[in-house]
Predict the 3D structure of the following.
Amino acid sequence: MYTQRNYPTKKAMKEALAGALAEGHPGLPCYQPGPFGPNVKDGPACCEGPHYPEPHRWYASCIVKDGFIVKAK
């Protein structure tokens, strides 16, 4: 799965998530490209970046709720 915004690093994604949660947002919007998406089921998921067609350089274990990443490590 991908985040809606194309983060260049996992650190940038995690900082954006912390900022979004601190501002009262539900998290970072995410989606699943291809035949398995666009929605992501609630629960654990793997996020990757940067977006295709660039080679993926980072991966994060995430928790998704209502289409938003609410936790990442």
